[in-house]
């Protein structure tokens, strides 16, 4: 594509699970991509294949510190997303959501860039309304172990809408529901990665509580398509907009499906339910269907098969053992442009 038509797109958290798929897609669409990451939970392995492109740049940076670059669009994805990762250093999690949002919004204000926020279904907390639509204001515990993530993301939404009203920023806020796929961290404790790794190793599958809580799982390619479509909407479209798959499954159903697809000998075992674990979660995506003409197209079985193949590859290369060693603890002190993880 000629130089003058290329957009300069920045992706914070670009070395993570969702961010790396997004970088890939943005590059394929003919953009110049700047990936900004402090490697807290993301890895260079996730974006190594993009480094050979002259249209891809990687910057090690912690977004809780100011950043001065010139860009046209910003996708703000930086934030640990799995409970064990975001609870490892909860103060840093809130700082990433809140100070990070202020810095990225300040950058968008100066450069007049359009800015996308990766918000979350966790803003609904443990919901009394089902399925959850964007009008529902949520039921979030402000002082529990999940609060650093939930309230941090809620405050980031507040900042996005205040910058929009006060400084006329062009904002796009997506509320992302559980998403899975290749490049999930094998030891991040999330249910899909946990169950697949356990099943492939024929180890017990750990169901928390009675396994009757529900989630709705979206394959990563569908989610990235939703991100791009939301970013491309008219300026009047700000969100918040739910993005997710409406297929709702109990965690027990997910476990049984993973066992079946892997042909595993694993047995199901029951463990205590974590504090404030939401009992039901299913997106109402009426708004996204209408405004983006978007809905997920990858069925759970097909998405799981692709994810299983990815984890089979990781296990046979021994990479999960390596990352298990590296992820306990996953980080050292953070700060500015310095390394935030010993191996990064
Ligand atoms: P991830 O942990 O794989 O990716 C997060 C990335 O952000 C990592 O590469 C990490 O190193 C980086 N990061 C963390 N703190 C940073 C900081 N201070 N400065 C710079 N980089 C930092 O998680 P993911 O699943 O890819 O999630 C991406 C985004 O989407 C997150 O904001 C998350 O809250 C949101 N989200 C994800 C899901 C999901 O199911 N995957 C659901 C809802 C919301
Ligand atoms: N900021 C940044 N990059 C920029 C512009 C601003 O990181 O290109 C940060 C800066 O640290 C600032 C924050 O964004 O504190 C918010 O910027 P804003 O202009 O809203 O506020 P102010 O500069 O008045 O604090
Ligand atoms: N979960 C489980 N076993 C696991 C990991 C998670 O039963 O090994 C449950 C967890 O308690 C929650 C659901 O699966 O009810 C989804 O958990 P995850 O951490 O993936 O996402 P979130 O709770 O943030 O939706």
Automatic annotation (TrEMBL):
Broad EC category: lyase
Keyword Isomerase: no
Residue span of region Disordered: 318-344
Cell location: Golgi apparatus, Golgi stack membrane
Listed Polar residues bias regions: 335-344
Biological pathway: Nucleotide-sugar biosynthesis; UDP-alpha-D-xylose biosynthesis; UDP-alpha-D-xylose from UDP-alpha-D-glucuronate: step 1/1
EC numbers, comma separated: 4.1.1.35
Pfam families: GDP_Man_Dehyd
Domain NAD(P)-binding residue range list: 10-307
TM region positions: none
Family: Belongs to the NAD(P)-dependent epimerase/dehydratase family. UDP-glucuronic acid decarboxylase subfamily.
Protein name: UDP-glucuronate decarboxylase
Species, as recorded: Candidatus Methylocalor cossyra
Organism lineage: Bacteria, Pseudomonadati, Pseudomonadota, Gammaproteobacteria, Methylococcales
């Amino acid at each position: 594509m000629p130089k003058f038509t290329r957009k300069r797109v920045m992706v914070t958290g670009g070395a993570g699970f969702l961010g790396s798929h997004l970088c890939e897609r943005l590059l394929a669409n003919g953009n110049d991509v700047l990936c900004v990451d402090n490697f807290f939970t993301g890895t260079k392995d996730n974006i190594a294949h993009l480094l050979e492109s002259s249209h891809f740049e990687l910057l090690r940076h912690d977004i809780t510190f100011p950043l001065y670059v010139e860009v046209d669009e910003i996708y703000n994805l930086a934030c640990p997303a799995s409970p064990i990762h975001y609870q490892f250093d909860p103060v840093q999690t809130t700082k990433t959501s809140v100070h990070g949002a202020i810095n990225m919004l300040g950058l968008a204000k100066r450069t007049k860039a359009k800015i996308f926020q990766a918000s979350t279904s966790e803003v609904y907390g443990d919901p009394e309304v089902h399925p959850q639509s964007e009008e529902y204001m949520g039921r979030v515990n402000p002082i529990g172990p999940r609060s650093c993530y939930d309230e941090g993301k809620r405050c980031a939404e507040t900042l996005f809408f205040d910058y929009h009203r006060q400084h006329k920023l062009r904002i796009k806020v997506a509320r992302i529901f559980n998403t899975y796929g290749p490049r999930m961290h094998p030891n991040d404790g999330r249910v899909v990665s946990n169950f697949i790794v356990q099943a492939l190793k024929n180890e017990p599958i750990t169901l928390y509580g009675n396994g009757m809580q529900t989630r709705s799982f979206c394959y990563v390619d569908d989610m990235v398509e939703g991100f791009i479509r939301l970013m491309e909407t008219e300026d009047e479209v700000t969100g918040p907009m739910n993005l997710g798959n409406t297929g709702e499954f109990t965690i027990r159903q997910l476990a049984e499906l993973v066992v079946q697809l892997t042909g595993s000998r694993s047995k199901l075992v029951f463990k205590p339910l974590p504090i404030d674990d939401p009992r039901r979660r299913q997106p109402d995506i009426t708004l996204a269907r209408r405004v983006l003409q978007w809905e997920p197209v990858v069925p759970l079985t097909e998405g799981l098969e692709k994810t299983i193949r990815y984890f089979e590859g990781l296990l046979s290369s021994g990479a999960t053992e390596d990352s298990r060693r590296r992820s306990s603890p996953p980080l050292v002190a953070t700060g500015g442009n310095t390394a935030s993880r010993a191996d990064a």
